[in-house]
């Protein structure tokens, strides 16, 4: 009886601490991420209204696709872990193939959006864009600020 009471008390204390330790933040929506990214690029590159609309369309498609792909990647990594724990060679091979395929799809979605955006820029804007990231073309890419493909400030 004492053990049960002590266990319940400790469990309640841990649960209470974990609730107070959490912050009530919500992840930004794809629309918010894209708006922030386009606003940043507009400031840096002086985008026209047409370029902003094009960028919004391209980056929304990209992030929507990448979000779906990342969900599939997470599932494949979980399945791979299970296959490893079960010493399941076929499962390991199948999930490794899935991870490779999904990673390729992610890179393709990002590169396609970047290429479409780059093509919409003037030569002067392309020169500035190339300077935004070491290594040239690609501009402000990466996973900064909690969103895939978001700008690094």
Care to describe what's here?
The protein is mostly helical and 153 residues long. The chain has one domain. Helices cover 74% and strands 0% of the residues. It is built from five helices and no strands. The protein has helices at 2-21, 30-45, 49-85, 89-119, 123-131. Helix 2 crosses helix 3 (49-85) and helix 3 (49-85) packs antiparallel against helix 4. The longest helix has 37 residues, at 49-85. It is elongated. Mean pLDDT is 82; it is low at 3-14 and 135-153.
Rg calculated over all Cα atoms: 22 Å
Q: Number of DSSP strands?
A: 0
Order of helices and strands: HHHHH
Head-to-tail CA distance between termini: 58 Å
Which key phrases capture this entry?
mainly alpha, 153 residues
Helix and strand layout, with pairings?
Blueprint: H1 2-21, H2 30-45, H3 49-85, H4 89-119, H5 123-131
Brief write-up:
With 153 residues, the chain is mostly helical. It has helices at 2-21, 30-45, 49-85, 89-119, 123-131.
């Amino acid at each position: 009886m004492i053990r049960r009471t002590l266990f319940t008390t400790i469990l309640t204390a841990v649960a209470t601490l974990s609730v107070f330790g959490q912050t009530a933040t919500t992840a930004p929506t794809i629309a918010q991420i894209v708006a922030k990214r386009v606003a940043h690029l507009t400031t840096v590159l002086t985008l026209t209204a047409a370029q902003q609309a094009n960028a919004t369309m391209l980056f929304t498609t990209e992030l929507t696709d990448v979000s779906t792909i990342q969900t599939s990647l997470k599932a494949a990594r979980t399945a791979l872990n299970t296959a490893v724990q079960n010493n399941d060679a076929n499962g390991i091979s199948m999930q490794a193939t899935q991870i490779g395929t999904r990673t390729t799809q992610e890179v393709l979605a990002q590169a396609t959006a970047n290429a479409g955006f780059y093509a919409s820029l003037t030569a002067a804007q392309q020169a500035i864009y190339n300077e935004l990231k070491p290594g040239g073309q690609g501009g402000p890419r990466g996973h900064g600020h909690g969103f895939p493909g978001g700008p690094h400030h």
